[in-house]
Amino acid sequence: QVQLVESGGGLVQPGGSLRLSCATSGGTFSIESMAWYRQAPGKQRDLVAAITSGGTTNYADSVKGRFTISRDHAKNTVYLQMNSLKPEDTAVYYCNVAGRNHWGPFNRWGQGTLVTISS
């Protein structure tokens, strides 16, 4: 069973930085894409950033130039470096991993990590 474990959330002042991590484990698998989503209170879950197995990235317009998604293939881990954080970045951040194992394709969500930007 493929599982994701997120870490790195917390409380940060506006203008600060945080780095989120999401580690994938559970048998033998290949990863096709990894992504970060966020959901603010009362709002839908939206894509923040994504990265393909080939390294192609895309970002929501609201985070371009401030957030960077990266992945460590050896560790099956995806990161989200968040700089110049704003109060409107406050949300629960979820990682998402799509891939394949011997059972077939899979799509998994992390448990979510809370990011709060406040002075």
| Beta-strand segment tally | 11
Helix/strand order, N-terminal first: EEEEEEEEEEE
Q: Show unreliable segments.
A: none
User: How many DSSP H or I helices?
Assistant: 0
Helix content: under 10%
- The mean pLDDT is 96
State the separation between the terminal residues, measured CA to CA: 40 Å
Radius of gyration: 14 Å
Global geometry: elongated
Structural class: mainly beta
In short:
By secondary structure, the chain is mainly beta.
Please, could you describe this protein's structure?
With about 120 residues, this protein is an all-beta fold. About 0% of the residues lie in helices and about 60% in strands. The strands form two sheets. Strands 2, 4, 5, 6, 9, 10 and 11 form a seven-stranded mixed sheet that branches. A four-stranded antiparallel sheet has the order 1-3-8-7, with no helix packed on it.
Secondary-structure blueprint of this entry?
Blueprint: E1 3-7, E2 10-12, E3 18-25, E4 29-39, E5 46-52, E6 57-59, E7 67-72, E8 77-82, E9 91-101, E10 104-109, E11 113-117
Summary tags:
4-stranded antiparallel sheet; elongated; 7-stranded mixed sheet; 119 residues; mainly beta
